Amino acid sequence: MARLIRPFFRKTLSSSSSSGALLICRLQPLPQEPHLKTIGNSLFQTQHRTYITEMRKSAFEANILRLLRNEIQYELERSPPTQPVAKFDSFTVDSRPGEQWIRLKRKMGDEDIKVEVTMFDGAIPTAKSGGGTGEEVQLHITLIVNISKCKDVDVLEITCSAWPDSIEINRLFIRRGDKMPAQPYVGPEFKELDDELQDSLYKFLEARVLLPLVRLWFSSPTISIDHVACMY
C-alpha cells in the first residue's frame, strides 16, 4: 500500500508544481517590445510640443490685442473723438461708426447721387518723392456710385478704384431701382469700351464733384479713431 501511495503522491506534487509554475507565468507581465515603447514616447513628446506651441500662440495673440487696446485707449484719452461729420464738401454723410465704409449723398438738379466709400482697403509701393531712396505707399479706396433721376426707377451704378490724385472706373451697369437680380448683368469690362465713351463717363463723374471728393477724402479722412475703436 505504501508503495502505491508514494508514486501517487509524487505524481500529485509534480502536477501541482507544473500548475503553479503555469499560473505564475500567466500572472507575470509580458515584456514590452522596445519599438512600441519608443513610439509611445515619441507620440507623447509630439503632443506635448503641440500643446506648448498652441499656448505660446494664444499668449502672443492676447498680448497683441492688449497692446492695440492700450494704444487705442491712449489715443482716445489724448484726443477725444469729435462729433461725427455731417457734411463732406457738398455731400451729407452717414458715417456708420464701427463699419468698414461710409455713405455720402447729394442732389444735383434732378439727380440723386449716392456714394459708398470704403476705408483704405489697399496700397501699392511708389518711388519716394524728392528723389530719396526707398519706397513709399499709395493708399487706395473703393467707391460705388449710384446715380438716378428723381422720376426714374433705373439706377446707373459705377464701381471705381480711387487713388489720391485719380479715379479709375472698373465697371458700370444699370439696375432696376433698389432690386438687384440674383445674377445681374454687369456689362463689359470698362477698358473694353470705346475710348470716346470712356472719356465721356470720366467727365460725367468729374462733373458731379467726385474727383474733388476723393482728393478731400485722402487729405482729410473722416474716419477718426472712434471708428477704429468700435472694431475691437
TrEMBL record:
GO cellular component, one term: mitochondrial matrix
Name of a matching Pfam family: MAM33
InterPro entries linked: MAM33
Protein name, entry field: Mitochondrial glycoprotein family protein
